[in-house]
Amino acid sequence: MNFTRQWTHALTAALTILLLAGGAPQKAGAEDNGLERTPLLGWSSWSFLRKSPTAAAMRAQALALHNSGLQELGYEYVNLDDFWYQCPGPQGPNVDAYGRWVTDAATFPPQGDNDGMKVLADYVHSLGLKFGIYVTPGISKQAVSRNTPIKGTHYTAAQIAEPSVEEDNYNCKGMVRINYGKPGAQQFINSWADMLAAWDVDFVKIDGMKNSNAPDVKAWSNAIRQSGRPMVLDVTQGNFTSAIASTLIQYANQWVFAPDVECYRCEKNGSSYPLTSWTDIAKRFRYVAESQPFAGPGHFTDYDSIEVGNGSNNGLTPVERQTQISLWAMGAAPLILGVDLTHLDKTDLDKYLKNTAVLAVDQDSIAAKRVIDSGNQQVFAKKEANGEVIVGLFNTGGTAQEVSVPASAAGLSANAGGYSLHDLWTGERKKADSTTIHAVVPAHGVVLYRVRAM
């Protein structure tokens, strides 16, 4: 991904104009489909399983999530990323009689008349969990060359395709643009959504999106709606600018515009470890700050996977793990784990992932404002419905330092009696004076307070 600071500024400006003009139009999509009223909690295959997902591996991860105690806290989505479909080469994914991708039966075997995806979804659902899947925009070159019919119509793949315009399918390749001005184009996406609905899919990630894919976002939203099955729509980017902003707000439940959190350059010995690095976490501070005005029930910015759960294989120190979770929580971001759930580190699980006081900060659905951005000090704050204020004091530097914020800047009303501070990581409670909230914060660390007037 080649995302730039210029785009985030442009996005901020565009979305601000949209909101000042009265907000996103109240049509199909995030504003009224009833889904993701709080940030989504779950797990995704990409960070750990990467290019080798199988039905057995996915079942093992789903069972581990079920047995870990995380499901009881709301972690319920088990999302299969790329490499679930047949990809014979650069001519694009294999397709069925109607031009839709074909499940790789070698890794996701069918049972009777049930497709391998339906079989996997049934298992995930049997655990009380939800199942997500991955797609990319466009139509496979194989469908175009075979001129497959579009289900339920007399139109064909070649009639809706723009063969000269390649779409981003990062690994398989071979996808070309759909011309939504052509009859049959929406019906093709409808047939996709109907197929996913028949598999009992609950979440659709559409990856590799650009500004010019705005019609795909709308088409997928409309297709999901007509399918009759509620499915979260997650839009992830290859290269966005502000031109797609209003479409995302109107039609998507969540979106990613930050680079991948995985540290591909760090991986050793052919494994997925270490999963990330401090550098990849630290760059998120400005993304969280610049996206703050746009998160809310039904539409959240996703800052990519939470890489906490595998101890040293996370690629983060214990302090940095607290920082990642805290930053995502302050941004009211989806918390989608990327770790190997079958080998959870006990400290990561019990101390970090099961910290319900911190989880509540995320699940309030309120994105914090950045109130201090000075050197190595970052402070984010947000006011809860009950009047309490959550304050995150972050130190991005390499040595411990005191981080402070005026109480008024954090959104606290003047109070001569001072404030009660509840440290959400340590559980400690103490009193602060009437003018500042401060703490000594370790290198790359955070102190996360819930503050109320005394």
Question: SS-based structural class?
Answer: alpha/beta
- Helical percent range? 25-40%
**Spatial separation of the terminal alpha carbons:** 47 Å
As for the number of domains, it is 2
Write down the overall mean pLDDT: 93
The CATH superfamily of the largest domain appears as Aldolase class I
Proportion of strand residues: 15-25%
How many E-type strands? 19
Number of helices: 14
Looking at how many chains there are and whether they match, the oligomeric state comes to single chain
For the largest beta sheet, what order do the strands appear in spatially?
Answer: 10-9-8-7-3-2-1-11
From the alpha-carbon coordinates, what is the Rg to the nearest angstrom?
A: 22 Å
CATH topology value of the largest domain: TIM Barrel
By CATH, the architecture of the largest domain is named Alpha-Beta Barrel
Q: Stretches where pLDDT falls below 50 for ≥5 residues?
A: 1-10, 16-31
Shape: elongated
Highest CATH level, the class of the largest domain = Alpha Beta
Largest sheet: 8 strands, parallel
